[in-house]
Design brief:
307 residues; five-stranded parallel beta sheet; Rossmann fold; single chain; globular
Amino acid sequence: MLALPAPIVLHPGFVKTATKTLQLNLFAAHPDILFLGRPAPAPELDAAIKRIAYEDSTRYRAEEVAAVLQRYLERAPRRRVIVLSNENFALYEATDRGVVAERLHRLAPEARVLFTIRRQEEVLVGWYLQKLRKYFRGGHYLSFPEWLRIKFKEPHRSILADLDYSGTILRYVELFGRERVEVLPFELLKAEPHLFAARLAAWLGVEAEGVRELLARPAQNPSRTTLYIAFHRTLGRLLPARLAFKLGVRLVARLPGRRPELRLDPATRSWLRAHCAAGNRRLAEIFDLDLGRFGYVLAESHECGEG
């Protein structure tokens, strides 16, 4: 267990739910927040945080990770709140989301926990558009339907495994208690940024005005645009892969453009309902969230069972 100089908030950020924007625009920039996350302020600290997410339990040593964090906290400038934020804590690539939750609880059992969520359909599209950069770097392109077909071959080893947020969030509720877990929809940030900032500031324990100002900055890690995709599918094919990638990232990706309109096929929508609707309903009821307002797929109450 850590001896903390200030309250700590854990943010196991689900991907494509404004995680990078919160990390870079808010957590790393707010004068009252000591930010531990990506990018970690020290190599030793970065390695320790990665161990929490990735290291196999046969090698993981909680006391070693705690010692690294403790040394950093003792040297770090004092703040009103500490925020440990890493999207890999809740990513399918982690060793096990439940194991990660237990490791974080052992480190800081009195922590408050923050989750942001987003409509699963939007996360799926956003993750595909983000991964296009990797595909273009390798000199090839996958259409959205092709990409989905590949992911559905092993859904438990892809972003599909992360889309039922309830499994991960309710594990934190079991460990930390309901009163120590907060869930904020990404859509609230877009629809009512002042309300989102106020609720986030209250949870962090900092002034709302500073949070509002920092969240008004341009979003980090935006989706690839139609122009970016068109460049790689046309001119990019005529250039060496490395050169095309550099031009795409340094020039084309920075130009204004719109996000492609990608639609999910009926089979994918049916799968999302089967796997996410009951969990969305549970989160809506437990955290008093109006997810229906934002278009989340929701099961009827009687479909959720006793769990």
